[in-house]
Structures are given as structure tokens and as C-alpha cells.
Specification:
It is built from ten helices and eleven strands. By secondary structure, it is of the alpha/beta class. Helix 7 crosses helix 8. Bound molecules: 2-acetamido-2-deoxy-beta-D-glucopyranose.
């Protein structure tokens, strides 16, 4: 892993070696969050972690700590192969009368090499999955196409559970590539579900998904979005803003995992405050890919953490 990392980082130096220009704008204020604000997210963190487990374990809801942490959860649909199609699951969570949709992520080094490709393509969203999307909205086509594979099946199951259980809320979660899929799913479900059903999303170590128009549209539709970034994780800084990619609002940055120092960052992708992701990782060389795995309030997420 480390030699691959070394090769990758050496290759990236050529592209990202120059330090980021000094920002002259005044720093926007962050909000300091309490340990409780962070632990309130634990159940979502464990759902995001569980998505790294294979389908049979998910359907039986026997995936070690991640499943035990949310004991009454009923998984009703799961699929994927953990490779070409990420594992995912949908189910009912009685504690919050919610439907949960969770997507697996992928190997962070493989993801980094894809997302630092300067020829990365953006494209328009499918109008069946994203009805009413304005012209100009574009996302990374890899994320878009991966989301599209399971989107209708997931949407049908979400609707079925809302009807059967009387659920009033849908929460999409995911880590890494799974965070990007959760972001797309939150928007797609928001556009396809009745207004009285709440849709929110909580993601971890999520790369940038789409362009400014996508972000504007997303922010106007999904009003409860939290994207949690850990310390100097590199993944939230790619694809680069210079390639026309942006983040929706809702950044929560774990500044120091050990000390549980955690802030909510203003705006969409704050580049003025020392405590937010961009300033923490001003160039790709100052990041740490191991931070991608956590800990998110003591919880690690990744293929080796399904036990
Ligand atoms: C859009 O998505 C629908 C539903 O998955 C599919 O039937 C249709 O072929 C897609 N359209 C395009 C242009 O990809």
C-alpha cells in the first residue's frame, strides 16, 4: 500500500506541486461543535461503515460492530458486488422512523488516481432520475453512471418502505465514492418523493461530485446535508476546483480526531479558514490518505473494518 502511495504521490507532485496561492480574503467564521454533535452522527457513521460488508451479512444484519451499533435496523434490499458495482443496502430504522440508503466506497488510492485525471469528464444528469434539473447542471460521469445502475431499484424500495412502514424521513449515507453516490441519491430521491417526506444525507470523506450549477441546484433542494471530513484526508479536495468541481454546503471538519476538535464550516467549500478542509490540505502533498479511513468519532470506515 505504501509503495503504491509513494508512486501515486510522486506522480501527483508533477501536477499539484505548486503551493496554493495565498488567499487575501478575511477568514469566515467556523462554528465549534460539541462532542455530542459528533456522537449524534454515530449511527450514520456505522451505517456508512456497514456498506463495506457483503450482501449476505447485510441482509441478515450480522456485520459485526457496524450492525450491532444499530440493532433494530431491518435491511430489506441489498446488492452490488463490492467491485464494479459498490455494495449498497436499503432498510427501515424504527428508532427514527426513517428509511436508510447506504452505499459502499472504494479503495482510496484507486479513487485518487481516477479523480486526479486531468481529462475527467462531466456530463448532464438523466432527466428520469433527476426530473426538473436545470440546464448547465453537470457531474462527474463516472459517479453519475454508477449511481444510475441501481437508482430506480433503490427508489422503488424506498417508496415501498415509506408506504409499508409509514416512514417520514429518508437518509442517504456513504463514505468515499459511497459519499458521492449518497449525494446523488439524496438529490434524486428529493426530486422523486413527495414534499412531506424529508430527505437528508450524511457523507464521509466525499470527493467533489459536480459543477457549480449542480451545487446550486443541490443546495436549493436538499436542505439537510452534512459532509464530514477527517483531518488531512485528500479525497475531499479532488477533483480540483480548477477542473470546475464544487462541494455543496454542509462541511463538518474533524480538525483533530484525538482531541475531538470539530467545526462546521461556512459556505460551500471554505478556503479562508485554517480549520476547514481546503486550508488543512492546501496541496495534495500535505494530505494524508490514511485520514480517509477515520476515525470518525472513534469509528473507522473501509473494507477492512467489516468484522
Ligand atoms: C435515463 O434513465 C432511465 C431509467 O433508468 C433509462 O430508462 C433511460 O434510458 C436513461 N436515459 C438515458 C439518456 O440514459
Amino acid at each position: 500500500m505504501f509503495s503504491t502511495a509513494f508512486v501515486l504521490f510522486t506522480a501527483l507532485t508533477a501536477v499539484f506541486g505548486a503551493p496554493a496561492p495565498v488567499s487575501r480574503r478575511a477568514a469566515a467564521a467556523v462554528t465549534t461543535l460539541s462532542a455530542t454533535d459528533l456522537s449524534d452522527l454515530d449511527s450514520f457513521t456505522q451505517f456508512a461503515r456497514a456498506a463495506y460488508c457483503p450482501v449476505d451479512k447485510l441482509m441478515a444484519w450480522k456485520c459485526g460492530q457496524a450492525c450491532k451499533a444499530n440493532p433494530k435496523f431491518e435491511a430489506t434490499l441489498s446488492g452490488g458486488m463490492g467491485n464494479a458495482i459498490q455494495f449498497f443496502f436499503v432498510g427501515y430504522y424504527p428508532k427514527t422512523n426513517s428509511v436508510i440508503v447506504s452505499h459502499q466506497g472504494t479503495d482510496p488510492l484507486a479513487l485518487m488516481s481516477v479523480l486526479t485525471d486531468l481529462k475527467l469528464l462531466k456530463g448532464a444528469l438523466n432527466s428520469t432520475l433527476f426530473p426538473g434539473t436545470p440546464k448547465g447542471v453537470e457531474t462527474h460521469i463516472g459517479f453519475r453512471d454508477q449511481h444510475a445502475i441501481k437508482a430506480l431499484e433503490i427508489q422503488a424500495e424506498v417508496k415501498r418502505l415509506i408506504k409499508e412502514k409509514g416512514a417520514t424521513q429518508v437518509t442517504t449515507v456513504g463514505h468515499s465514492l459511497g459519499g458521492a453516490l449518497a449525494e446523488l441519491n439524496a438529490l434524486s430521491l428529493r426530486l422523486n418523493l413527495p414534499a412531506e417526506i424529508g430527505v437528508n444525507a450524511v457523507t464521509y470523506g466525499t470527493p467533489r461530485v459536480g459543477n457549480d450549477d449542480f451545487v446550486k441546484f443541490f443546495d436549493s433542494k436538499v436542505d439537510d446535508f452534512k459532509r464530514v471530513n477527517n483531518e488531512a484526508d485528500l479525497v475531499p479536495t479532488v477533483p480540483g476546483r480548477f477542473l470546475g468541481f464544487s462541494h455543496p454546503k454542509g462541511e463538518i471538519h474533524i480538525v483533530d480526531a484525538d482531541k475531538k476538535e470539530i467545526v462546521a464550516c461556512p459556505g460551500n467549500d471554505d478556503d479562508t479558514n485554517e480549520k476547514c478542509q481546503i486550508k488543512t490540505v492546501p496541496s495534495i502533498l500535505s494530505g494524508n490518505i490514511l485520514n480517509h479511513l477515520g476515525p470518525y468519532n472513534g469509528i473507522f470506515i473501509g473494507s477492512i473494518f467489516c468484522d
